Predict the structure.
Amino acid sequence: MSFFAKAARNVSLAFILLLTGFLLILGITAGGTPPGEMREYFIQRGMIDTGAVNLVSSIYLGYRAFDTFGETIVLLLAVSGVILLADRKTPTISAAVIEPKYPKRHRTDILDVISRKLAPFVMLFGCYLISHGHLSPGGGFQGGVVLASGIILLTLGKGVDKIEEMFPLKKVSLAEAGTFALLLGIGLAGMFGGGMFFENFLPGKSPGTRAESPGIPIESYVFILNIIIGLKVGAGISLICLSLFKEE
Amino acid sequence: MTFYLIVLLFLMGAWGMIGKRNIIKKVIGLSILNSSVVILFVYLGSMSGTQAPILVEGVRDPVDPLPQALMLTAIVVGICITSLSLALVYVIYRRFGSLDIKTIEKQIRDFDE
């Protein structure tokens, strides 16, 4: 590429970026203060309606559970797409000869020991985030990602083959698909229980009367959904990473 | 001030997507751009209060939880997009043996002629 062509390309790139930045700043700063009606509503009703102390959990598993369901569909699609695309057996049109640029990866004892000693605690922390998602910062998605990061840490230390013996891809895929079916079943159970899709069908009651009267506490619905979504996200992210890490 | 930093982050992502020739760097640019949008929404939401939206004892002025819940969706979708595009990059690399977008375009043109 000649000098002038390169200069013209850089100038046009800078012009586009500056224009975009200018428009963005105009748009962001001209908005004024965002409306706060929903904030008042969530603070007053969030805990009573869903029983979750963590208001973010009460929104994405209580009020907007249908949205979360769509989100899990997106994750499921991404996982199946990655598995299909990263599969070595999928034929390519013309197989370009790719010689490996780097020799076999080096493994040190440091990485090995640290990953093996640290990963159980990372996974334990993931389980804590999932099971306390309605009480403290965390939840199904975050805890699931932490769970998967424990598996990825093990994979970095030991290689994919060893980890596939521990977490066979078939079973992880089964967990991914099974939790999705479970989520769908819970949503439909809300409908058959006489309510809407993903309505709390447990014979619940408000959190204030937990000690005296019998019945299931209202927050157990968010708790169950958190556990299912945590398993699903953990299985999905591990599947994505394992199928991308896999060697020939 | 924070707005300018967020816009700068957005522009860095856009520059990575438009200006870089390596397609993995384009994917990284997409990821940075996604993060800047997430940061913008969380920052806008954080101006409505002073404490985390977790109603334990002593919390008087929690922030609006709605932007955070919406950004949870955005983060998950961002992860899905990044992983899918990385898998696509892998397929492109197997097909063309290169990550440089110019080389790939040249090969496609040669193939068409």
